């Protein structure tokens, strides 16, 4: 939307390795069926699983009946896998024993992700986490569709006003359904996260990189012009084609198809712009995939 750019207040880093008995602590679901729900950890043991009777019930097929637990021991909070089929992950590392938690840690249980919060002002951290969820995708950690559409509308207005170039790139993962079918949905989630964090390092702060939906992503590129944007699109394609994606000791080949479009004077709505980039993405997929069209 037109106006000042949305800003996110950063949560102060918590230095303590783990929480103390007296510290308030909770987990917040940042990806999954009950997005944004807060669970205060008052019990000595707090279980997560698919069946009724757990403190948190996550109704997903890739969550075991009793999947994981968070326990309080000697003044610290720990996470432990309960022999689940798909494993429990802490900050993308599989939990193989009781592992201490720090504020801000991400706990992945099947297709859901929880953020652990503790410290002097858990309520403030919780509200900041919820605000971040309104503009950020919980799985990949990059901007979400809502933020992308607001940013695109704002930049279209600015670039029209000052006669500046604006380029939009849409891309998606080739044969992503096959990745899910062959390697499982947890592997698919891993690919989405790893790809996002890899490309996030290539995107400048004045650009917008977002998850548009499913396995589709968008990059909005102000000022550079079409030629530079297409070179950047090739860099993205090449980076992912040559990156190793390894999940549970299995290598997963990943390539991208990309559609690039330049804003024209007759484009007044974001959806007009998106339609052109999406048409080029469709051409990239129809003409062999793993290529840039625009």
From TrEMBL:
**Matches recorded under SMART domains:** FHA, GGDEF
Q: Name one GO molecular function term.
A: diguanylate cyclase activity
A cellular component term (GO) from this record? plasma membrane
Top EC class for this record: transferase
Q: What is its EC number?
A: 2.7.7.65
Domain GGDEF as annotated: residue spans: 164-294
Superkingdom, taxonomy of origin: Bacteria
Short name of any one Pfam family annotated for the protein:
GGDEF
Q: Which GO annotations describe the biological process of this protein?
A: cell adhesion involved in single-species biofilm formation; negative regulation of bacterial-type flagellum-dependent cell motility
Task: Give the reactions, separated by semicolons, that this protein catalyses.
Answer: 2 GTP = 3',3'-c-di-GMP + 2 diphosphate
Domain FHA intervals? 46-95
* Protein name stated in the entry: diguanylate cyclase
The species this protein was found in? Cystobacter ferrugineus
Q: Taxonomic classification, please?
A: Bacteria, Pseudomonadati, Myxococcota, Myxococcia, Myxococcales
């Amino acid at each position: 939307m037109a106006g000042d750019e949305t800003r996110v207040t950063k949560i102060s880093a918590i230095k303590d390795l783990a929480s103390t008995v007296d510290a308030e602590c909770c987990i917040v679901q940042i990806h999954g069926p009950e997005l944004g729900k807060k669970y205060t950890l008052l019990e000595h043991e707090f279980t997560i699983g698919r069946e009724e009777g757990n403190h948190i019930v996550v109704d997903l097929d890739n969550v075991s009946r009793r999947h994981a637990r968070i326990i309080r021991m000697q003044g610290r909070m720990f996470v432990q896998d309960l022999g689940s089929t798909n494993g429990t992950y802490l900050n993308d590392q599989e939990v193989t024993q009781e592992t201490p938690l720090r504020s801000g840690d991400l706990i992945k249980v099947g297709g859901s992700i929880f953020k652990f919060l503790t410290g002097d002002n858990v309520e403030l951290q919780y509200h900041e986490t919820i605000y971040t969820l309104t503009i950020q995708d919980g799985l990949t950690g990059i901007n979400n569709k809502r933020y992308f559409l607001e940013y695109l509308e704002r930049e279209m207005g600015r670039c029209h006003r000052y006669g500046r170039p604006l380029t939009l790139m849409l891309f998606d993962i080739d044969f992503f359904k096959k990745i899910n079918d062959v390697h499982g949905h947890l592997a698919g989630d891993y690919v989405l996260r790893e790809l996002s964090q890899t490309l996030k390092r290539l995107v400048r702060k004045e650009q917008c990189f977002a998850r548009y939906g499913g396995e589709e992503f968008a990059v909005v590129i102000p000022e550079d012009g079409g030629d530079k944007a297409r070179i950047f699109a090739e860099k993205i394609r090449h980076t992912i084609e040559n990156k190793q994606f390894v999940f549970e000791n299995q290598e997963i080949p990943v390539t991208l198809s990309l559609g690039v479009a330049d804003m024209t004077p007759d484009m007044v709505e974001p959806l007009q712009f998106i339609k052109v980039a999406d048409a080029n993405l469709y051409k990239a997929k129809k003409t062999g995939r793993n290529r840039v069209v625009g």
